[in-house]
Design a protein that fits this description.
Elements: E1 2-6, E2 11-17, E3 23-30, H1 34-44, E4 49-53, H2 58-68, E5 74-77, H3 82-93, H4 115-132
């Protein structure tokens, strides 16, 4: 199992995915609860690796996670454009209804944070990089 982590200053996205790309858990959590949540996920799933985005505050998060969970392997992946990709994925998962369908996709805004979808996309990027190597 892989743990995706989209670090942020206010909130973080987490996702747990198997090598088969089956999603087992995902959530958007306040940044203050992130370390605790990661600990719970490590206790609940056989996680072998954390995949983390390389942009917003990633260096600080990586240092804090390594000091709290010294045995956890952490790899960073390119996070650029992951929010845009997550926004598109949101509308695939939760199609617009009613009049919202008439609004062009680029003008719609999800009605909830999408950091958990970003965390899943980070894992997928890592897995795709493995396959193409």
């Amino acid at each position: 199992m892989l743990l995706g982590f989209d670090p942020g200053k206010q909130k973080c996205g987490v996702a747990v995915m198997g090598l088969d790309r089956k999603l087992h858990f995902q959530a958007v959590i306040p940044s203050l609860e992130a370390i605790s949540k990661v600990g719970n996920l490590l206790d609940s799933y056989p996680i072998s690796l954390m995949i983390m985005g390389d942009q917003t505050a990633s260096k600080q998060w990586k240092a804090e996670l390594k000091s709290t969970f010294p045995d956890l392997r952490i790899i960073t992946v390119d996070e650029r454009f992951s929010s845009e990709e997550a926004r598109q994925r949101f509308w695939q998962i939760y199609p617009a209804k009613g009049l919202m369908k008439l609004i062009p996709l680029g003008m719609r805004s999800p009605d909830r944070p999408i950091d958990d979808i970003v965390a899943a996309i980070l894992i997928e990027r890592y897995l795709s990089r493995l396959i193409s190597s």
